[in-house]
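Teaching note: in complex prediction, the entire set of molecules is handled at once rather than each chain in isolation. The prompt given to students was simply: 'Predict the structure of this complex.' The entities are:
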Amino acid sequence: MTDPAAALRRRSRPASQARRRLPRAAEQFSGWAFVTPGAVIILLFGAAPIVWSAIMSFQRSNLLSPSTPYVGLRNYRQLAHDPIVGQAIQHTLIYTILFVPGTMLVGLFLAVAMNRKIRFISVYRTAAYATMAISTISEALVFIWLFDPSYGLVNYFLSLLGIPQQQFLNSPTEALYVILVMTIWGWTGFAVVIYLAALQGVPQSLTEAAAIDGASSWATFRRVTLPLLSPASLFLAVWLTINALQLFDEVYLSTQGGPLNATTVLVYYLYDQAFQDFNFGYASAIAYVLFLFILVITAIQFRVGRRFTHYRS
Amino acid sequence: MIRTFACTSLAAALVALGLAACGSDSGSSGAAAGSIQIWEGYTGPEAKVFAHLVSEYDTQHPGTKVTSLFVNNDNSLQKVLTAVRGGSLPDIAYLYGSWAPNVAQIPQVVNLTKTVSRPGVNWPDFWVGERDVATVNGKVIGIPALVDNLAVVYNKTLFAQAALQPPQAGWTWDQFSADARRLTDAAKKQYGTAYVTPGSEDTVWHWEALLWEAGGQLLTAGNKKAAFDSAAGLKALTTLRTMAVTDHSMYLDPTDSAYGNLFNSGKIGMLVTGPWDLSTFPNAKYGVQVMPSFAGASGGHQTISGPDNWVIFNNGAAHVTAAQKFLLWLTAPAQVRYFSLRTGDLPTRQSVTDAAGFDQQMDKALPGVSTFIANLGNVRQSRPQIATYPKISQALGTMVVSVLLGKAAPQAALSTAAQQVNQILANPNG
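The expected output is the structure of the full assembly:
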């Protein structure tokens, strides 16, 4: 009446299942236990502020008094009517559009120049990367003096060329560009390192093959090296854009948004609203607009970038 | 199996430890009632002298333990705001006076009105400018921690080179402008004076002192409307403009950080600044004089002060009592005198300056500081104690900078700023 094999299967199934379930539960538990500290930290310092600032962007909040009435979309509507927000967006965009390609070009140029076996090459490479190691505050102080209208070296060199004295950080039309130069200098080391690493990954066989086929060195660079650098370029473009849209330190240290709001970028204005005027609700709304900005621009960069990026595999 | 469980429990223990550590950090409320925590931003000699005073207090009061935590003054309100939400406020914090109207909105701030009227405290002994800044809507929310004011620091060597007499106590802004012109030498890249132009409160308060001297007011009584769009406001703004735009005798410093080095290097003849800068001029042979006045104006010689406060937060009655006791000790004449003589900071109490030989002792520690002490008597008014002041300050900053950069005429800039300020006052939450 019974199939001994089936009976065996019936009997053995729960046993084997139990055997399988027990270690899995324990493993799962230990897995979670290991992940928990990291997850807690991320949730606490990453996710919680993101959610909280989202809530705050719909409130009138100065963080001082406990009363934080909900005001709906009032903060966001106010954004549309705030002339300084318009200016700040404009400054942020101008800065980003010039900063990202500028840093990439300077970085690429230096990386190509240093991608060869010459004497003291490690000294040059260290020097290029040093711009990353130098703290922003020293960088800002040095540039403040370089670009000082009366005592700065830049105006001195311009005067040798017969160019009249410029006002630089005192001039509403020039200050943003001084900050641009300052930050390109500061980020060059980063771009150089990324491009140098990518250049080392370009197989010599390909450039040699191109040379044998009679391609000029420019054509080789243009048609072989540059496409092979495209993953690095995409990475740099995205990374530098995100950082450019979040420009703050250099502005805070050199011009505090001035003169006459000429260097007020979005993050600086956000800081100003939050910590000078105690408009935390409004500042949170600005932060969310900036977040959307970054999200959209990064998405576009990935989409467009994919078309021009060649991954060797 | 055993290994897995060992690891698991280790990880779990770490989590528990981490959480426990977070928990114990969050607030002095868990500490013994006898111990109080202070947030202060002293560095250099101030830090040393403060630490000495704290340890002296601890020895004199065995029941109490005062612990102090360094918090950069610029960031202390940000940290206090975080602590308000986290329920981990210190018992006492050093906070800038300009924040007072906003600080007063924090529910945990202890009302000290009764405390300062206790016998022995002698509240009127604190300078009027200090008391004004410690009081918001008639409520005392802090005890003065620091006082300063603006006066003119001038380079004696440059004055001698230009064959100019050193400024006298009764001088006027016309003389200041004329001296600045004479001290300016484009070939040597030498300027008569300087002005900070980041458009921040540092830009604004220099101008406010001129406004008061010219007989003007910032706002109408009751802080209802702008009052600076007046003849006095115009005079104050035009005086600065003449030096910056017409005479080019004024070095404009948008970074708020260059003027000190330039004065120390003998490139600037006169600076309107505070006592905190004196120790940064080791290379310049300098003198100090009170600010000039406007000839014929009702304001006379005035100056502006930016006092800071010690603020107490409520962490339970025992803590509040201990904190009050400590602060009253710290700000009593003997301790104020001790602190000033060793740091060069102006004494926060008037009685301390009356003692014979005090000025000379101060001048020995920091040459020229006695003029700043005497100048405390010229602090006759203070900035409006209202929560919207930071916004008003921004409008005024833009006004001053646009005039000094030659981008706007004084009257037009005044009208625009007055309009903005009226809007801010009418709609404080806008």
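Point out the following to students. The CA atoms of residues 5 and 11 of chain B lie 10 Å apart. The first helix of chain B runs from residue 2 to 25.
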